[in-house]
Amino acid sequence: MSDDITETSQTVAAGQLRAFIERIERLEEEKKTIADDIGEVYAEAKGTGFDVPAIRQIVALRRKNPAERQEAETILDLYMAALGMV
To answer: E strands along the chain, which residues?
Structure first.
């Protein structure tokens, strides 16, 4: 009886593990597709004359809340001043 329970538990655990792995694989494939799509948008922007590094920087800044963005800008200004760049 206990062997049946152990075997059933192992079968259930194996099924759950397989389901997790398959979900991760599916999401990784979706992530790759999305990354490819984003790359195409950047290429399109570059093709129309926009500066891709500037666009990437703006996208990164927009992800931050205003306080985080202000802190990053303050640190950048401080470092640039220390190096005599401003």
So the answer is: none
Burial 7-40 (b: 16+ CB within 10 A, else e): eeeeeeeeeeeeeeeeeeeeeeeeeeeeeeeeee
Q: Give the span between the Cα atoms of 36 and 4, in whole angstroms.
A: 48
Question: Tokens representing 52?
Answer: 């891709």
- The residue-averaged pLDDT of 55-61 equals 95
Token pair for residue 40? 């195409």
Name, in order, each residue with C-beta under 8 angstroms of 80's C-beta and a sequence gap of 6 or more: 86
pTM score, whole prediction? 0.70
Interatomic CA distance for residues 71 and 67, integer angstroms: 6
